[in-house]
Write a structure and sequence with these properties.
Aminopeptidase, single chain
Protein backbone atom coordinates (compact mmCIF):
# COMPACT_ATOMS: atom_id res chain seq x y z
CA UNK A 1 0.00 0.00 0.00
CA UNK A 2 1.44 3.38 -0.92
CA UNK A 3 0.78 6.51 1.10
CA UNK A 4 1.48 10.19 0.84
CA UNK A 5 4.45 12.10 2.17
CA UNK A 6 4.54 15.87 2.51
CA UNK A 7 7.29 18.38 1.96
CA UNK A 8 7.45 22.10 2.77
CA UNK A 9 9.10 24.44 0.30
CA UNK A 10 9.33 28.11 -0.53
CA UNK A 11 7.32 28.68 -3.69
CA UNK A 12 8.34 30.71 -6.71
CA UNK A 13 6.52 31.87 -9.84
CA UNK A 14 6.44 28.33 -11.26
CA UNK A 15 3.86 27.49 -8.57
CA UNK A 16 1.38 30.10 -9.86
CA UNK A 17 -0.95 27.68 -11.72
CA UNK A 18 -1.21 25.37 -8.71
CA UNK A 19 -1.72 28.30 -6.32
CA UNK A 20 -4.63 29.49 -8.48
CA UNK A 21 -6.18 26.01 -8.48
CA UNK A 22 -5.76 25.64 -4.72
CA UNK A 23 -7.25 29.12 -4.21
CA UNK A 24 -10.26 28.01 -6.28
CA UNK A 25 -10.71 24.87 -4.14
CA UNK A 26 -10.21 26.64 -0.80
CA UNK A 27 -11.49 30.19 -1.35
CA UNK A 28 -13.66 29.94 -4.46
CA UNK A 29 -11.18 31.91 -6.60
CA UNK A 30 -10.79 34.85 -4.24
CA UNK A 31 -7.34 36.24 -5.10
CA UNK A 32 -6.67 35.78 -8.80
CA UNK A 33 -3.50 35.55 -10.83
CA UNK A 34 -2.21 39.08 -10.28
CA UNK A 35 -2.54 38.82 -6.49
CA UNK A 36 -0.47 35.65 -6.29
CA UNK A 37 2.03 36.87 -8.88
CA UNK A 38 2.73 39.95 -6.75
CA UNK A 39 3.26 37.85 -3.61
CA UNK A 40 5.55 35.37 -5.37
CA UNK A 41 7.71 38.22 -6.71
CA UNK A 42 7.66 40.65 -3.74
CA UNK A 43 10.99 40.51 -1.86
CA UNK A 44 9.28 41.09 1.51
CA UNK A 45 6.83 38.20 1.04
CA UNK A 46 7.40 34.53 1.71
CA UNK A 47 5.10 31.93 0.16
CA UNK A 48 5.43 28.49 1.74
CA UNK A 49 3.82 25.48 0.11
CA UNK A 50 3.07 21.94 1.23
CA UNK A 51 3.64 19.46 -1.55
CA UNK A 52 2.16 15.95 -1.50
CA UNK A 53 4.18 13.19 -3.07
CA UNK A 54 3.45 9.48 -3.26
CA UNK A 55 5.69 7.63 -0.82
CA UNK A 56 7.19 4.29 -1.77
CA UNK A 57 5.61 1.34 0.02
CA UNK A 58 6.96 1.03 3.53
CA UNK A 59 8.70 4.42 3.52
CA UNK A 60 5.93 6.69 4.68
CA UNK A 61 6.97 8.89 7.59
CA UNK A 62 4.32 10.89 9.30
CA UNK A 63 3.91 14.62 9.30
CA UNK A 64 6.17 14.89 12.33
CA UNK A 65 9.07 14.02 10.03
CA UNK A 66 7.99 16.30 7.18
CA UNK A 67 10.90 17.26 5.00
CA UNK A 68 11.62 20.97 4.91
CA UNK A 69 13.24 22.25 1.74
CA UNK A 70 13.72 25.99 2.11
CA UNK A 71 16.32 27.07 -0.45
CA UNK A 72 17.45 30.69 -0.75
CA UNK A 73 14.99 32.63 -2.86
CA UNK A 74 16.28 33.48 -6.34
CA UNK A 75 13.45 35.05 -8.37
CA UNK A 76 15.55 34.92 -11.56
CA UNK A 77 15.89 31.13 -11.44
CA UNK A 78 12.56 29.31 -11.15
CA UNK A 79 13.63 25.68 -10.94
CA UNK A 80 11.01 24.06 -8.76
CA UNK A 81 9.08 21.01 -9.71
CA UNK A 82 5.94 20.63 -7.66
CA UNK A 83 4.20 17.25 -7.54
CA UNK A 84 0.90 18.37 -5.99
CA UNK A 85 0.44 21.58 -4.01
CA UNK A 86 -1.99 20.85 -1.18
CA UNK A 87 -1.47 23.84 1.10
CA UNK A 88 0.19 27.23 1.30
CA UNK A 89 0.77 30.21 3.53
CA UNK A 90 1.82 33.76 2.72
CA UNK A 91 3.79 36.02 5.03
CA UNK A 92 4.56 39.72 4.72
CA UNK A 93 7.55 41.07 6.61
CA UNK A 94 7.14 44.71 7.62
CA UNK A 95 10.06 45.86 9.77
CA UNK A 96 9.65 43.84 13.01
CA UNK A 97 6.12 42.65 12.16
CA UNK A 98 5.14 39.45 10.42
CA UNK A 99 1.70 39.60 8.86
CA UNK A 100 0.21 36.26 7.84
CA UNK A 101 -2.08 37.17 4.99
CA UNK A 102 -3.21 33.74 3.86
CA UNK A 103 -3.13 30.11 4.99
CA UNK A 104 -5.01 27.39 3.12
CA UNK A 105 -5.08 23.59 2.97
CA UNK A 106 -6.90 21.62 0.28
CA UNK A 107 -10.15 20.23 1.76
CA UNK A 108 -9.05 16.67 0.87
CA UNK A 109 -5.86 17.05 2.94
CA UNK A 110 -7.21 18.77 6.05
CA UNK A 111 -7.07 17.43 9.61
CA UNK A 112 -3.54 16.08 9.18
CA UNK A 113 -1.64 18.92 10.83
CA UNK A 114 -0.62 20.58 7.56
CA UNK A 115 -2.01 23.98 8.52
CA UNK A 116 -0.04 23.85 11.77
CA UNK A 117 3.18 22.98 9.92
CA UNK A 118 2.65 25.85 7.47
CA UNK A 119 2.01 28.24 10.36
CA UNK A 120 5.10 27.02 12.24
CA UNK A 121 7.27 27.48 9.16
CA UNK A 122 5.91 30.95 8.48
CA UNK A 123 6.71 31.95 12.07
CA UNK A 124 10.17 30.37 11.77
CA UNK A 125 10.83 32.37 8.59
CA UNK A 126 9.60 35.54 10.31
CA UNK A 127 11.90 35.04 13.31
CA UNK A 128 14.84 34.35 11.00
CA UNK A 129 14.10 37.64 9.20
CA UNK A 130 14.14 39.57 12.51
CA UNK A 131 10.40 39.90 13.09
CA UNK A 132 9.39 40.17 16.74
CA UNK A 133 5.60 39.78 16.55
CA UNK A 134 3.01 38.38 14.17
CA UNK A 135 -0.52 39.36 13.27
CA UNK A 136 -3.32 37.94 11.12
CA UNK A 137 -7.03 38.19 10.40
CA UNK A 138 -9.43 35.25 10.33
CA UNK A 139 -13.11 34.98 9.46
CA UNK A 140 -15.16 35.04 12.65
CA UNK A 141 -16.95 31.87 11.48
CA UNK A 142 -13.75 29.87 10.81
CA UNK A 143 -13.60 27.93 14.06
CA UNK A 144 -10.94 25.46 12.89
CA UNK A 145 -8.54 28.29 12.01
CA UNK A 146 -9.31 30.14 15.24
CA UNK A 147 -8.48 26.99 17.24
CA UNK A 148 -5.22 26.60 15.31
CA UNK A 149 -4.12 30.19 15.88
CA UNK A 150 -5.07 30.21 19.55
CA UNK A 151 -3.28 26.89 20.12
CA UNK A 152 -0.17 28.45 18.55
CA UNK A 153 -0.26 31.28 21.09
CA UNK A 154 -2.05 33.97 19.11
CA UNK A 155 -4.32 36.23 21.16
CA UNK A 156 -7.41 38.01 19.93
CA UNK A 157 -6.81 41.72 19.61
CA UNK A 158 -10.00 42.97 17.99
CA UNK A 159 -12.63 42.69 15.28
CA UNK A 160 -12.92 44.24 11.83
CA UNK A 161 -16.57 44.63 10.81
CA UNK A 162 -17.41 43.35 7.33
CA UNK A 163 -13.74 42.71 6.42
CA UNK A 164 -14.40 39.52 4.41
CA UNK A 165 -17.15 40.46 1.93
CA UNK A 166 -19.50 41.41 4.75
CA UNK A 167 -18.27 38.89 7.32
CA UNK A 168 -16.34 40.14 10.34
CA UNK A 169 -12.67 39.32 10.77
CA UNK A 170 -11.07 38.65 14.10
CA UNK A 171 -7.63 40.19 14.48
CA UNK A 172 -5.02 38.10 16.26
CA UNK A 173 -1.45 38.78 17.26
CA UNK A 174 1.43 36.97 18.87
CA UNK A 175 4.34 38.58 20.70
CA UNK A 176 7.02 37.36 20.87
CA UNK A 177 7.13 34.95 17.99
Amino acid sequence: MSSTSYRLQVLDITALPQLLELDRRCYGGYWGEQGYRVELERPTSTVIGVVAEPAAAGTSWGLGRMKVSIPPRDPTSPTQTIKELVGFGILWRIEEEAHIISLAVDPEHRRQGLGRRILEELLHQARAAGCRWATLEVKASNQAAIRLYESAGFQRLGRRKGYYNGEDALVYWKKPI
